[in-house]
Structures are given as structure tokens and as C-alpha cells.
Amino acid sequence: xxxxxxxxxxxxxxxxxxxxxxxxxxxxxxxxxxxxxxxxxxxxxxxxxxxxxxxxxxxxxxxxxxxxxxxxxxxxxxxxxxxxxxxxxxxxxxxxxxxxxxxxxxxxxxxxxxx
Amino acid sequence: xxxxxxxxxxxxxxxxxxxxxxxxxxxxxxxxxxxxxxxxxxxxxxxxxxxxxxxxxxxxxxxxxxxxxxxxxxxxxxxxxxxxxxxxxxxxxxxxxxxxxxxxxxxxxxx
Lengths: 115, 111
Description:
The structure holds 2 protein chains of 2 kinds. By secondary structure, chain A is mainly beta. Chain A contains no helices and 11 strands. The relative contact order of chain A is 0.32. Chain B is globular, with a radius of gyration of 13 Å.
């Protein structure tokens, strides 16, 4: 099984609708990253969460980290076609104090926004 | 500040050949991590370099190697290419291994 599970695998919404993507870890998280990717391109950094209960927002995107559940959620308010893409969560698992630049990624959520 | 750059952006090779990919990190960043992305396996960590030293390595065969230069630029090399090595290769730079910023990737096709 995957260390980091994302759900749903794909999502199709009408423009203007709100949506949530979840990322659940089977191991203790040190940090949780959210990225967006256009197909075949590089990853765009969205947010990094480190502390339980932490919540960050950027424009219409909000991410939260639930330390108890080892889970993060990404919420998009009033979605737009520009939000379409693949959303990936990446986990920083630390053992012995450092992860030395390794992120473990979920399988991604493909978001389609219909105008 | 300029972002992470990767060259070349696209590459076509045949089985058995070797290939070298290059990554220039954001100015001031000393850590470079490499990842392989395929439809079947997703994004997988290859290795990380910091100040010219490999600090971490993923579960890839020895055909995959890398190095980092004194200016923090990094290269990765794949020898004896196999069809399964076709993938998008991404590098990410960071100050010290956290908060990674990714380049546009190199699309490698092995025929």
C-alpha cells in the first residue's frame, strides 16, 4: 500500500464550485507539501505545512494539516479553469533528524474545471 | 530570482545508450534532489546532493548516478538505457533539503 494516499484520484467540477482534495499518510509526518503540475511540466510549489493544526492560504487555495489524523486537505474556493491540473502532496518523513531532500509523493489528483 | 533550469527539455535515445541530464538550481540553493516521474510509478526520489556530496539515495539501480559541482549545478547520468527508463526527470532545489522548488523537467524517451 502507498505511504501517502490522495483522494479522489480525479475530480471534475463546474467553474465556481468549491472542492477538497485529501492526502493521508500512514506514517508520522514532519512536513507536508502541496504542488500543482500541468501535464508533462514541472511542479509548482503551493504550500508547506509543518505544524499540527496549521492552515495556510494563497489566493483561493487553503491547506490544513491535521496532525492527529496525519492528514492534510487542500480546499479550492470558487474554482476557475486556471485551477485545472494535477495536484500532488509530498511528505517529508524524517528519521534520525533529517530526510536529506527526499519527498515521498502521493499519486496525484487530476482536477478538471468546466467553464 | 531565476528559477530552476533543466537541460535538455527533451531527449530521445535508444536502448543501451547512456544519457546525462543537467540541473541548475536557484541561486544560493545548495541542495539538489532528483526525481523520476512515470505514469505507473508516479514521482519517485532518485537522490539528493548537498555541497557536492550525495546525502540520500532512493531505490534505483546503480545505472542511475549523479554528481554536483562546486557551483551547485548537478548532473544525473543513466547508463545502459532501458525502455522502462522513459520518464519525466525532475530536479528540485532548496536551501538545505526542505521547501523544494522544481524545474520544468527533462522528458526522456528510450526507443
